[in-house]
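*** Protein under study ***
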Amino acid sequence: MMCQFALAGTSTVTAQSKKEKKENIQTMKCWVSMTCENCKAKVEKNIPFEKGVKGLEVDLPTKIATIKYQPAKTSPEKLEKAIQKLGFKTEIIKEEEAKK
């Protein structure tokens, strides 16, 4: 019976580790030179397939793309370059600027 209890405790620790890895998601905001719904659709169609991207919101009126990503798999610079490859000009918005 002691072995069963020890194994149950081990699986709980493993589950917590997986949860911690899942929660290691960061958010970046990026200005994108979008001018129309087709531009927005192009970003929404392509960027979610970039490695490490976990979420994407694109706001056409403000021209802001908000991307949730795993820092172990990608970086804001790589994501910005991916948007630029689609033919857009971009600028990463720093946290301090986003709060203003």
Remarks:
- The longest strand covers residues 26-32.
